[in-house]
Amino acid sequence: MNNEEIIEILAGWNFWKKDIDTGIFREDYISKTERFLQTGQVVALIGVRRCGKSTLMKQFIKKQIAGGKNRTSFLYVNFEEPKFAGMLSLKFLQQIYESFLEIIKPAGKPFLLLDEVHNVPQWERFVRGLHEKTEAQIIISGSTSKLLSKELGTLLTGRWCEVKVYPLSFGEFIYFHKVETRGKLDILSNKTRIKQLLRDYMEFGGFPLAVLSSEKQEILTRYFEDIIARDVAERHKVRQVEKLKSLARYYLTNFTKPVSFRSIAKFIGLSLDTVERFSAYFAEANLIFLIPKFSFSLKEQEINSRHVYGIDSGLINIVSFRFSENIGRLYENAVLLKLTGAGKQVYYYKNKNECDFVIMEGKKISQAIQVTYFENNEREVNGLLEAMKEFRLNKGIIITEDKEDERTVGGKSIKYIPLWKWLLER
Fold first, then answer.
1. Quick one: 8 and 157 in the same domain?
2. Which of 32, 33, 191, 192 is the most exposed place for a label (fewest CB within 10 A)?
3. What is the pTM of this model?
4. Are 21 and 160 part of one and the same domain?
5. Domain tally for the chain?
6. How far apart are CA 4 and CA 10, in angstroms?
C-alpha cells in the first residue's frame, strides 16, 4: 500500500477536511486526558471493548480544534480498520506516520491518537521513539489492561499515564437521557425520572451505543461475543472457545458471589490451571473484577475466595436472564463499578458476618459500605458494624433502594442513602 492510499483510508476517520459527529461529550474523561497530556507523558485510555474509547479520542480532537488548534495537527488511526487487515507491523505503523507528515503536513507538533494499538506488534518501540524525541503528543487506547500495561511498562516505564475508561456511569447515563443533575434542586425536581432511569440502567447497563439504541439486546449479545472472541480467544490463542464462554457465563451469572477456582474447575470440566488462566484473561479484558477478601496477610488474601463482579449490568442480564431476581445484586455491582471507577482499592470483609466493601487508603481501611435492596435487614447492619469495629471506623454507609436516614448503634454512626443519590455524588 502506498502513502496516498493510506491517507485516502485515514481521511474517513480524521477531521482534516470535514467535521465528524462525535456524539454526546464525556467531559470528565476528556479533561483528565488533557491534564495528563500537559505532563508530557503518553496517555493510555484503557477499558472494555465498546465502552467509548474511540469516541473519546475523537471528542478530544474536536474540542482541541474548537479551541483553535489546526485540523492538520491530528492523526487518528483505528487499528481495527478492515482495510489494514494483514498489514499491521512496526514498519507499517512507521509508514502511516511518514505518510501523514508528507501529505497532510501537520501544523506544529502533531497529536497522534492510536486506537486499539496493541493490534500492532512492537507498537511500543514506535511510541517510545517519538516520545523520546518529543516529536509528538501521543494518546493510545486498548481493550486489554494487563497486556497493554505490560508492554507500556517494558519500554515506557515512567513515561505514561493511564485513564481507565468504563461504560457510562449513572450520572453520564441520565445526562445521555437529557436529565440535568448539576445542583441539588435539579436532582430533587427530577427525582421521579431519575429513579425510573436507575431501573433502566440496572437492566440495560451503560455501553453508550446500547443506551441510545432500541436494539439493546442484540447489541449487548454481540458485545459479549466480541469480547470473548477477539479480546480473549484470539488474543491468547485459546482453542477451547466453548469452555471459555461457559466460564464467562458462569462468572456473569454468579456476579457478586464468592468464587473458588477449584470448585469451578470441577463444575465446568477444566483443569485448575486453565480456570486460573482464563479468569486472568477475563480480568485483563475488563469483563470481570475479582475482589479479594481483606486480610493483613497477603497469603491469606490469595487463598480465600474472591467475589466476582461484571463490567456492565446489561452484559450480566443478557447472560443471566434474571433481572428482577437479581436487582439487589445489581445494586451491589453498580456500587463496585463506581468505587473502582473512582480508583478505589476495594476488598470485601468477612469474619462472623460479611461487609460488602471496605476501602483501603494508604495503609488502612478508611470506609465500610454495605449494599441492600431490602431496607430492614439486620444481617447487613451486623456485617457493617463488625467491619467498623475491626477497622476502628466511627461512620459507615448502607446503600438502599430508597431509605435515607442516620442512626447510631453502639456508638457507631450509620448513614442510609438511596443508591440513585449515592451514584450521583461526586
1. yes
2. 192
3. 0.94
4. yes
5. 2
6. 10
Q: List pLDDT tens digits, range 11-52.
A: 999 999 999 999 999 999 999 999 999 999 999 999 999 999
**Any residues with CB less than 8 A from the CB of 100 and at least 6 apart, and which?**
7, 10, 75, 106, 110
Task: Name the DSSP letter for residue 102.
Answer: I
Calpha distance 386→353 (Å, rounded): 7
Q: Residue written as cell 446500547?
A: 210
**Contact between residue 41 and residue 160 where contact means Cβ atoms under 8 Å apart:** yes
Tell me which DSSP letter residue 74 carries.
E
Place of cell 516505564: 157
CA angle 243, 247, 250 (to 5 degrees): 135
Q: Which three cell numbers stand for residue 211?
A: 443506551
Residue 348 counted as domain residue: no
Q: Which of 129, 164, 199 is the last residue of a domain?
A: 164
Q: In what order do the strands lie in the sheet with 288-291?
A: 258-259, 306-310, 288-291
* Per-position b or e across 227-246, b if 16+ CB within 10 A of its CB: bbebbbbebbebeeeebbbb
Beta carbons within 8 Å of 421's beta carbon, 6+ residues apart = 187, 404
Q: For 271-329, what is each residue's pLDDT tens digit?
A: 999 999 999 999 999 999 999 999 887 777 778 899 999 999 999 999 987 777 899 99
Range of the domain at 11: 3-164
